[in-house]
Design brief:
alpha/beta, VC0802-like, Rossmann fold, 2 domains, seven-stranded mixed sheet, four-stranded mixed sheet, 10 helices, about 20% strand
Length: about 375
């Protein structure tokens, strides 16, 4: 997703976006930061780099954190939490480093204003992130607060829902054009359909939530109000959408209807109760996107082994002319579905390595 994210950030005014493994670095104004939080469909968080430092021990990390003038960044009355991640770091305990950084921030506040901020592990006002490599560390302030995948519309969940930013990225990777019919025949809670509809209608993903930058001393309320008012303006030339979803489970369709309504996009999505093996295509051509089960539970693996060949037959019989995409961690699918794979894109769902498989369905056989 990094290349897609770099392009997205550039459209928000980001300067010199730099793609790295798992993220994109960029420079910009506070307006760029606000826009990225409000409008990014792909980012998980927007972190503000406060300082970089060299270290050899936990004491060096403490000293680097204590050297920051935290009182210039947020008020002592704000609650605090520290997060530490590391890659090839020599430190023995990340929990101990977390405590040391928390102590450094609190000790600096005590030195400067005679008081220490309170710690809140559940819902902190301010999140300090520390990233450690083998000899180098970086301290960040989190401008997002809760993860950006939390759009504020999810009313009801189903088993193993996709995160919203991953769903948006999958839709983008398919190359779907807004004027094309789009179908999710295993829609669950309708995450893919909500993200597709919001994207097509030009809805800002962050309109229904608050952000971490609102708790920082640098917060510009006038600028933020202006950006939100601009985002609330309806799209001038919104495309006519043909979005379809179906599921064989009544509970999934109930969740889908609630989520679509909460996101304000229910009028553009047609839902029906149907099994993917028996449903017909809603149009002569279009894009199908689905997130089938991964076979994580006992017995599901054998069931999926029988399901994939049937799915391949159903696609050939009912979806000629369609580009069909399946996002799964089950690598057997590509072989067992018995269709020619047009493209396979590696992605991660959390720590789970997955693939987005594309199958272009044509009438008859691929074989000459």
């Amino acid at each position: 997703m990094e290349t897609l994210l770099a392009g997205e950030l550039k459209s928000f005014g980001a300067q010199s976006p730099r793609v790295a493994a798992g993220g994109v670095g960029f420079s910009g104004s506070w307006e760029t930061c606000y826009r990225a939080n409000l409008w990014s469909r792909l980012a998980s968080r927007v972190l503000w780099c406060i300082t970089e430092f060299e270290y050899a021990s936990e004491d060096d990390i403490y000293a680097a954190a204590r050297a920051v003038n935290w009182f210039d960044l947020f008020d002592v009355n704000r609650t605090l939490r520290v997060y530490v991640t590391a890659q090839k770091s020599p430190v023995k305990s990340l929990e101990f480093v977390t405590l040391r950084v928390k102590d450094a921030v609190c000790d600096r506040f005590r030195d400067d204003v005679g008081r220490r901020p309170d710690v809140d592990r559940a819902d902190p006002d301010v999140r300090v992130h520390v990233f450690l490599e083998d000899k180098r560390g970086v301290l960040y302030l989190d401008t997002s607060g809760e993860g950006l995948f939390k759009r504020g519309w999810r009313m009801q969940t189903v088993e193993a829902p996709l995160r919203e930013n991953l769903a948006a990225g999958i839709v983008m990777l398919t190359g779907w054009k807004f004027e094309q019919p789009l179908l999710d025949p295993m829609c669950g809670g309708a995450t893919l359909l909500v993200e597709a509809a919001a994207m097509a209608r030009g809805r800002a993903p962050g309109m229904k939530r608050s952000f971490g930058f609102e708790k920082l001393d640098s917060f510009n309320g006038v600028l933020w109000k202006s950006l939100r008012e601009q985002a609330a303006q309806p799209a001038k030339q919104a495309p006519k959408l043909a979005l379809f979803g179906s599921d064989s489970e009544a509970t999934a369709l109930t969740a889908a209807r609630r989520n679509l309504a909460a996101a304000g996009v229910e009028r553009w999505v047609t839902l029906e109760a149907s099994d993917v093996l028996s449903r017909k295509a809603p149009a002569e051509s279009g894009v199908m996107i689905a997130n089938p089960p991964y076979g994580e539970r006992i017995g599901e693996s054998e069931e999926l082994s029988r399901f994939y060949p049937k799915l391949g037959d159903a696609l050939k019989n009912n979806f000629a002319g369609w580009n069909c995409f399946f996002f799964t961690a089950d690598r057997r699918m590509e072989k067992l579905i018995r269709l020619q794979t047009a493209r396979r894109t590696p992605l991660y769902n959390g720590a789970l390595e997955c693939r987005l498989y594309e199958f272009r369905i044509v009438a008859g056989s691929h074989r000459g």
